[in-house]
Design a protein that fits this description.
Layout: E1 2-6, H1 10-22, E2 26-31, E3 47-49, E4 53-54, E5 57-58, H2 60-73, E6 77-80, H3 83-95, H4 107-114, H5 116-125, E7 133-136, H6 144-147, E8 154-158, E9 168-170, H7 173-181, E10 191-195, E11 199-209, E12 212-223, E13 226-230, H8 233-246, E14 250-259, E15 265-271, H9 278-283, H10 288-298, E16 311-314, H11 319-324, H12 334-344, H13 348-355
Parallel strand pairs: 1-2, 1-6, 2-3
Antiparallel strand pairs: 4-5, 7-10, 8-9, 8-10, 11-12, 11-14, 12-13, 13-16, 14-15
Helix pairs in contact: 3-4
GO molecular function, one term: ATP binding
Protein name: D-alanine--D-alanine ligase
Pfam families: ATPgrasp_Ter (PF15632)
Length: about 350
């Protein structure tokens, strides 16, 4: 399998690259400066530094370059790894319908799901369980009359940040005012204000196409860098509603939370892209990238066992802690060991990232 991987975010692209290595694919990468670390991976067979966007629009020059490269070098499929590359690939597929592409959605759909306010509005529209949420656009809204529907403590977060950047819990109105007065990068209006739900985070990762979820895993953190992969029928049903509402195609990761007071499940936000633990799912037996490529090429999925993608997985950076703990051995799957070996035998991208 010959794959051309498009990437704007090097760290996220590296996780997708690991999944491609898991299926023994021949991989070349393309992307702007932010993806340069992929050039140094032992799993990359060539890297091209290009710009996907020009003046906010897909670069016609890059689109033509991509089409010519795929044709002249006989790539089997083009794969995006993040939102920017997925939006660019969807636009390029529209311009060149014969381009062999991994499932991906257009830019409008991606932006609507990624923006926390538009996502919250969608959940309300389809009567999906989401914590009470308001859009804070002006300091004039900082009063009890408006915030009473949210209550304290509350969560405040920017509309489009990722990886929990700018997500802050605040316990009273004075703390909220002080936070916004700081006018730091993540504290600038507009912001989302959402009721704080005491409990535990739980996420569902999906591959979707044709208004259905093709495969999924559910993950929660146990602490100490350990993930537990399971299945959850209610989460699957909620994610299916969102997939149908948007006619969503591709990879996505939905953050949810279980209320410790009554066990109720709440939808928090969506990352319409690959996710940072996607290689962990692979090592537990479910390679989303392989599934998506197979579906794109054949319209079907390969047969997988009922328990694929389940069990406990220890992240590479925490493996030694589990090894030193007698109770930690139960968290060490074979996949944890393979994932650790894969990471430490490909050090150059990580070194490049640290030094630049």
């Amino acid at each position: 399998m010959k794959v051309l991987l498009l990437c704007e975010s090097g760290p996220l692209g590296l996780k997708v690259l690991y999944c491609l290595k898991g299926m023994n694919a021949f991989v070349q990468t393309m992307g702007p400066r932010g993806a340069r670390m992929l050039k140094y991976s032992r799993y990359t067979r060539g890297h091209s530094e290009i710009q996907f966007w020009q003046d906010g629009l897909p670069s016609a020059e890059t689109q033509e370059l991509l089409r010519e490269k795929v044709q002249s070098e006989s790539f089997d499929i083009v794969l995006p790894s993040d939102m920017g590359s997925a939006a660019f690939l969807a636009a390029t597929k529209k311009a060149y319908p014969d381009l062999p592409c991994f499932p991906c959605s257009d830019r409008i759909t991606l932006d609507t799901l990624h923006n926390k306010w538009s996502f919250a509005q969608t959940c309300v529209k389809y009567n999906l369980p989401i914590p009470p949420t308001i859009l804070l656009e002006s300091p004039d809204q900082l009063n009890f009359n408006i915030l009473d529907q949210i209550g304290f403590p509350l969560i405040v977060k920017p509309l489009e940040a990722e990886s929990s950047h700018g997500v802050v819990r605040l316990d009273n109105l004075q703390a909220l005012r002080i936070y916004i007065d700081q006018d730091t990068r993540y504290a600038r209006l507009p912001l989302i204000v959402q009721s704080y739900i005491p409990g535990n985070d739980i996420d569902i990762s999906i591959l979707a196409a044709n208004d259905q979820i093709l495969c999924n895993t559910v993950q929660s953190w146990l602490g100490g860098g350990v993930l537990e992969f399971t299945q959850h029928s209610e989460m699957h049903a909620i994610a299916t509603q969102l997939v149908k509402a948007f006619h969503y195609e591709g990879l996505a990761h939905f953050d949810m939370r279980i209320d410790e007071r009554d066990g109720k499940l709440y939808v928090i936000e969506c990352n319409p892209r690959a996710w940072y633990t996607i290689s962990a799912s692979m090592w537990q037996g479910l390679n989303f990238i392989e599934m998506g490529i197979h579906y794109a090429k054949t319209g079907t999925l390969p047969k997988i066992s009922e328990k694929s993608g389940e069990g406990r997985y220890c992240l590479a950076g925490s493996l030694w802690k589990q090894l030193l703990s007698p109770a930690g051995w139960k968290n060490l799957s074979a996949g944890s060991i393979y994932g650790f070996i894969q990471a430490i035998t490909d050090p150059a991208p990580h070194l490049y990232s640290k030094l630049t």
